[in-house]
TrEMBL record:
Domain of life assignment: Bacteria
Predominant location category: membrane
UniProt topology in membrane: Multi-pass membrane protein
Keywords: Cell membrane, Membrane, Transmembrane, Transmembrane helix
Coiled coil: none
Pfam families xrefs: Na_Pi_cotrans
A single GO cellular-component term on record: plasma membrane
Membrane spanning stretches: 6-27, 48-81, 101-123, 130-152, 172-199, 211-232, 244-269, 281-306
UniProt name for this protein: Na/Pi-cotransporter
Lineage: Bacteria, Bacillati, Bacillota, Bacilli, Bacillales
Location relative to the cell: Cell membrane
């Protein structure tokens, strides 16, 4: 029983994460070299920052990667902290693009996409090779999803697992914490969401518990950013904690309304996987749209919460520096 669960879980997760890495590498080589320039140049207003965050997350296939890149640019002094709040809001919505694509159930195209991707990878032109990497990455993602589905049947038959999730269905907080911890461990909110989709489609989870896990996954993605901010300047720490606090606040605010969110997604589609994807999109869209007009206030609040402890130079010190310089 344990082998029949762990084997497809491990192999499927490896396929999925490796596919995400391959796709991200391909996109990075195609457009990633200009990403830093775009982020530095087109973040003058919160709305520009928002679109840059959204596009960058789709290109890099990881909100954590974009947040870490933002931390690096802030630490280098290329962009200011106030410019990054819009980027953070955009990354949250950008992650839903991958989830929506995954929910379309394109697993039957996994092997053909993988073969086409490998064939293009063997071509001499760098652009064609990178395109092949992206296509092969998508193929691996769908192959991983197909493999992960194999663990659903033994899980469904496991009384221990059923009782565990029956217990968690009585408390959406357990689902939220599960999503946070699992995503922090594997560093992929998309993978957590895909596994949740599989369990929901086999009726192992209730919709409310599944949505709580997805909200937890949103929070868990912040773990990488917090780690990346260690040893950096204050502005970089502000970026990491702004991302974390925003996602935590969104999850806590939405938690009492999971039933209503489930009803809305059920109205839009009858597919459980699509319901999860649409719910995540609705959640992130509402959170981002509500916060976007208040970006300056959010930035000031974070700067007040995590102040720059460096004391500004006194007028005398400035005068001495000018005289000696």
């Amino acid at each position: 029983m344990i082998v029949s669960i762990l084997a497809p879980f491990t192999i499927g997760l490896c396929f999925f994460l490796f596919g995400m890495y391959a796709m991200r590498t391909g996109f990075q080589n195609l457009a990633g070299k200009k990403m830093e320039q775009w982020m530095a140049r087109f973040t003058r207003t919160p709305y520009h920052s928002f679109w840059i965050g959204l596009i960058a997350t789709f290109v890099l296939q990881s909100s954590s990667a974009v947040t870490v890149l933002t931390i690096g640019l802030t630490n280098a002094g290329i962009i200011q902290f106030a410019q990054t709040v819009g980027i953070i809001l955009g990354t949250n919505l950008g992650t839903t693009v991958t989830t929506e694509l995954v929910a379309l159930k394109l697993e039957s195209f996994a092997i053909p996409m993988l073969l086409v991707g490998v064939a293009l990878w063997l071509m001499p032109r760098p652009t064609v090779r990178c395109t092949g990497l992206v296509i092969a990455g998508f193929g691996l993602i769908f192959l991983g999803i197909d493999t992960l589905k194999l663990m659903a049947k033994p899980l469904e038959q496991s009384e221990t697992f059923r009782s565990l999730f029956l217990e968690s269905s009585h408390s959406i907080w357990i689902g939220l914490i599960t999503g946070v911890i699992f995503t922090a461990l594997i560093h992929s909110g998309s993978a957590t969401t895909v596994i949740t989709m599989g369990l929901l489609s086999h009726q192992i989870l209730s919709m409310e518990t599944a949505l709580a896990i997805v909200l937890g996954a949103n929070v868990g993605t912040c773990f990488t950013a917090v780690i990346a901010a260690i040893g950096t300047n204050t502005a970089s720490k502000q970026v990491a904690w702004c991302h974390t606090l925003f996602n935590v606040a969104g999850a806590v605010v939405f938690l009492p309304f999971l039933s209503q969110l489930a009803l809305v997604s059920a109205f839009l589609t009858s597919s459980p996987s699509m319901q999860i994807a649409h719910s995540q999109t609705i959640f992130n869209l509402i959170c981002s749209m509500v916060a976007l007009p208040f970006v300056p206030q959010i930035a000031r609040f974070i700067q007040w919460l995590i102040p720059d402890k460096r004391k500004p130079p006194t007028p005398t010190a400035v005068w001495i520096k000018k005289k000696t310089g």
